[in-house]
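HUMAN: Quick job: go over this next protein and say how the chain folds.
***
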Amino acid sequence: MSFNDIFKSSFLDNVTSISPLDMVLSMVLAFAIGLFIYFIYKKTYAGVMYSASFGVTLVALTMVTNFVILAVTSNVVLSLGMVGALSIVRFRTAIKEPLDIAFLFWSIAAGIVLAAGLIPLAVFGSVVIGIILLIFANKKSSVNPYIVVIRCENQESEKKATAYLTEQTQKCVVKSKTARKGEIELNMEIRLKEDNTEFINTLADMEGVESAVLVSYNGDYMG
């Protein structure tokens, strides 16, 4: 061992394993693609309550994944330690929208591909995914579903209300029925023939019908 080997530091050698230009370029691209993912998420969100913090998380996740993979690719020993460190990470936040899982994987994948140096693949893949999500996520059915909640006094008024509702709508399906003494409650899924809800007023005024409620239904809640 020579005198220079005593003061040789492997830690300092790792400092120059990735050039500053590569680090800056990779992080800037990760930030740009993260913003693009956040924009697509904001445009395609169709849930009940929009979470701005989740959108910011997508940007941060792209950048964090990017610099982690940069470190792993520069050192094989570090890659083994990183696998063990990440194995203890647990995500406790519940995913409320199924599409949010796709955005999380998209952010992680974009960070990995960028760190691997496959910049054209990361840009082209993100653009294609974004266009597909914009097309299909914002595609709405021509006939919106509704839920009608009807409370009737007896079986006779139930038959009249059901017959009238079937006549006024394109489709009418009983989702649930609750019978109590002196009261019958029906939850029915309907499709309107036209964009007109005046029939619900006539339904509520029918003899034996205590109340009639019309609720727009998109699968997130039910009235």
In short: The chain has nine helices and four strands. The longest strand covers residues 169-180. The beta strands are 145-152, 169-180, 183-192, 209-216. The radius of gyration is 29 Å.
